[in-house]
Amino acid sequence: MTETRALSPSLGVEVTGVEDLLDDALISRCLEALKWRGVLLIRGLHLDDEGQLAFSRKIGEVVSLRGKEIFTVSLDPSKNPTAEYLKGTFHWHLDGTSDEVPIKATTLTARHVAMVGGGTEFASTYAAYENLPEGDRKRYDGLRVVHSFEASQRLANPDATEEQIRSWRTLGSREMSLVWERGDGRRSLVSGTTADHIVGMDPAESRALLDELLEWCTQPRFCYTHDWEVGDLVMWDNTGILHRALPYDAASERTLHRTTIVGEEAFA
């Protein structure tokens, strides 16, 4: 019998007793959990790539990157040619902030885990907005923020070469509302280390406000930390859940397989 339990007060749900992962009734419950709880966990599934893709396709259209629908998350360059960029994932972020329509959701399955560290931390920017003092809501309303891949990579690689910086800049930047009001009326905060600056604000004041906002969004009461076990499946709402990988030895065999679900709603 399928049952659920909260992973933390503000976000996350664990589903147990799963017999048929592709059952339409279960998929409906998963989509509801994704919307209202942000993070979904099912332990011990041990899905292969085809099983992960079959589940992902029930959630939405799967993104194909360089002709592949499965992306290998590993710091080993022999497994992941873009391993160097993964250094940026050790900092809080949303995926796809340079895109007009951000990624809807991401799934990860654990194939190998680190002996020490290597968990994934999540923070709800829905809960962060809902708990803002009224004065801060008014302060943030109407502000516009520019996000870029470069901003997060500079943090991860402060001694970058000019060639690296030029490469980052090819991905461009995007301006959007700091407070994102969705079509269904819910609001979240578009935060994270891709947030480069607030439009029209003094640079020092802008940096201080963005750092203050990220600290607010990622306080423990809005967070859940997932300690991976081999066979876990985790899915999260990329539009309202910040995430980051916790440090681990680059020589470890930590390997996750990721699918990415096409987004449905453009940034405001």
From TrEMBL:
GO MF terms here are:
dioxygenase activity
Q: Which domain of life is it from?
A: Bacteria
**Named cofactor requirement(s):** Fe(2+)
Q: Which residues form a coiled coil?
A: none
The residues that cross the membrane are none
Boundaries of each TauD/TfdA-like domain copy?
4-260
Family, as annotated: Belongs to the TfdA dioxygenase family.
Q: What is this protein called?
A: TauD/TfdA dioxygenase family protein
Which organism's genome codes for this protein? Answer: Actinomadura rugatobispora
